[in-house]
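Q: Give me a backbone?
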Amino acid sequence: MRPVILFAHGSGAGHDHPWLQRWHLLLSTIGDVVPLTYSYMQEGRRIPSPVEALETEHVKQATAAARGHRNRPLLLAGKSLGGRVSVRVAQRTPALATVVFGYPLISSGRKATRRDAPLRSTEIPTLLVQGTRDPMGPIDDFVDLVADHPTQQLRLRVVEDGDHSLECRKRPLRAVGRTQDDVEREVLYDIRGFLRGVLG
């Protein structure tokens, strides 16, 4: 059965951003994508609401998506902030799995903090898609999180040379005869495999 995918944006760009539009189309080959736009973005505010408020919105939208598509599996997906909130709320929603693009493991700013607690405690199958050049998420830290996860529900898909948006540098790609489109198709293939394992 074709799943419903609730897709949340990152902190600084809404669903009109080219990256989100591109991945909306890619994910649409797997399921029916429902964009989730947090109220601060709808209101034109640049600074996100407190994470607790975002969680409340997210749970409400996930519940509505599940109610509006009865008997169909619900998946949560999100970019950066949207992915972080997806992980935090997954167990409070009807979602069967979560896919995160660029989990912001280390906060930016003068007082950097680690945001690994939700990942360590999740009991929902979760796929992290992380670039090796992402300053907000050292790959070695994610490898350790996956290896030590108490429920073994955490998975990692590494994008070699990818940044926080999974974008790879053009010159190294050209050197091996590949393009960014190739990278994204390969990531999509692995997301499809992950979801096949979850949904059966």
Observations:
- The first strand starts at residue 4 and ends at 8.
- The chain has eight helices and six strands.
